[in-house]
Structures are given as C-alpha cells and as structure tokens.
Amino acid sequence: MCCFSRPVKFVGATQIFARFLDGVDQCLVYEMKIDAEEDLAMILPIPVSQPAKDDAVSFIDLSGYTDFFQDLDRAYPEPEYAFSLRSNSKSVVPAVQSVPLVVQRVGSFDASFVPSIRDFGRLDAQFRLEDAVWKSLPQYATYGFAVFKLRKGSQHVHPMAFRFPTATPGQLFFPTVHIHDGKVHAEEEFDHTLYAQAWKNAVVKGVDWEESAKNAGQFVDAKRDNGLVWGGGHLYKKSMSGKAKNTDVIAETRKMGWVAIDPVRDQMRIHSPDRHALFWFAENLIRNTNHRQICE
C-alpha cells in the first residue's frame, strides 16, 4: 500500500517482490523513489496470521543488495519503463497510547511491526494514520502492518524486506492500495512492477503474469538475497501503469503435482490436480530431459 503518514512531494518507480518461503511464511521486498519534506512512515498492510505477537514479522536487511530488482528484471528481455506519480497525504494522529512498539534499525531506515489497527496508538504520532482511514478499509480489520520510517529528502530507497506468517496460503499478497491525501479513492494512478515466485512445486496463475524463460538463479545473487529468491524456479512479472482500481493485488498460485521416473520403461508418470498445470509440467520436462514418453 503506497500510504504515507505525512505529505510527499513525489513517489514512483515502485517495485515489489513476493514469494512463499515455505508452507507458512510469505516474504515481501519493496522499493521506490520518494521525495518528502519531513520524516514520515510508509505503512504496508499484510494478511498476517492472527493473533499476531509483536515479533511475528522478521525484517531483513537488503542494504547490501541495492540492485536486487535490477537483477530480477534481467530475467526479462524487454526494458523496464518508469513512470512518475505525484501525490500528497495528510498527517494524522489517533489517540490511544500503550506500550511502545519495538523499533528495529534495518539498513537506512527504522521499521516496526504493528500487530493490528488498534496497536497504532503505540507508534509516535508522526507515523500514524487517523481512525477514519481504517474505517473506510474494512478488509484490513484482521491485518497486521509493517511500518517503515523514512528520512526526509529525495531518495531512492534501497529494498525493504520482511517475512511474515501468512493467513492466506496459496495467495501471494501485494500491498498496492494507495492513500495519498488521507482519503481512499476508487481509482488511483499506478506505477508498479510486481515480481512473484510460488513455493517450489507451484506456479503463479493468470495470463497477466509474464513468466521468465530461465530460472531466477541465473540472475539473482544468492550470496546477497538472504534466501528470499528460489534460484531453481522461474519468476513471474506484472506491470501496472496508469489509472486503475485502487486495490491490493493477489497472485493465485497453483500446485504442479509430482513426477515419478521409470528408467526401465523410459517413462515419466506425472500427477497434478490441475490439468493445465499438468500439460505445462509435461512440456517443461520434455524440453529439459531425454525421456520420450509422458503418462498421466
């Protein structure tokens, strides 16, 4: 969610990577360009498994991998186009105060996890939104929030990363709802490039997701990505630019099934709950092996 606790002069060139790290956790990596006249916070809602404790989210320092998204994009032949997005947002101050949330230093910024909307009162007023905003977004009633505190000025923020136990297994969540003026509008201008990876035996559904031709390991530096990218799998890319419905993006994933090899009969036996996935799986196996017979 491109949502800020203070006015911004400019924000754009947003890039987000999401992946299931296992059967429990999802990771998010977020990068953007921003220009602000005062310190502020960017707030990202996440469908964290509830009840969530203060330490449910693990923040990951990617300050040593500033070209993370450039490497992801190298998996695609076409160039990435950048669009600018100008916006403003009002500062807001809810009233409730409690035990302060833990603040972690992650690279060039401070980060906190807010377990629920009611816990925003535990943040400094400078980094909060007013209650009326959340009332207009009932879908976040059971969400947690990753809050990144950014310094004023014009900057290209290095990738911000974290992992969390997801409440929506099988659905990769991308926080893309915009709030730039203290109000939730039906449509907003988008300038986003999204990258996705499913768990190891799954793919991302949808014709609007472009699959890379090669495995991510040929482009991403495994020594610097903190295990966030699976080098043995393909990437999926979705570009969003111009005016669109102001909503979060959900990437549905599909399990690919299993394969058994019979070296005597020179056959592979494949099982998949999804017939489309079955043929995709078979095509890739044929392309990458010498086996000639495929049996469902």
Give an account of the 3D structure.
This protein has helices spanning 68-73, 131-135, 275-288; strands spanning 2-3, 10-20, 25-36, 40-46, 58-61, 104-106, 109-114, 144-150, 153-165, 171-174, 178-179, 187-197, 202-204, 210-211, 236-245, 249-255, 258-262, 267-271, 293-295. It has 296 residues and is mainly beta. It folds into two domains: 2-251, Baculovirus p35; 258-295. The protein has a seven-stranded mixed β-sheet. Strands 4-8-7-6 form a four-stranded antiparallel β-sheet, with no helix packed on it. Strand 17 (258-262) and strand 18 form a beta hairpin. The model is unreliable at 80-97, 271-277 and 287-296 (pLDDT under 50).
Please tally the β strands and state the result. Answer: 19
**Would you identify the CATH architecture of the largest domain?**
Sandwich
How many distinct domains? 2
Question: N-to-C SSE series?
Answer: EEEEEHEEHEEEEEEEEEEEHE
The class by helix and strand makeup works out as mainly beta
Q: How many whole angstroms does the radius of gyration measure?
A: 21 Å
Proportion in β-strands: 35-45%
Distance between the termini: 42 Å
Kindly provide the name of the CATH class of the largest domain: Mainly Beta
Shape: globular
Largest sheet: 7 strands, mixed
Oligomeric grouping of the chains = single chain
Q: How are strands sequenced across the largest beta sheet?
A: 5-9-3-2-12-15-14
Average pLDDT, rounded to a whole number, is 80
Number of helices: 3
How much helical structure, as a percent, in the residues? under 10%
CATH fold-level topology of the largest domain: Baculovirus p35
Detail the poorly predicted runs.
80-97, 271-277, 287-296
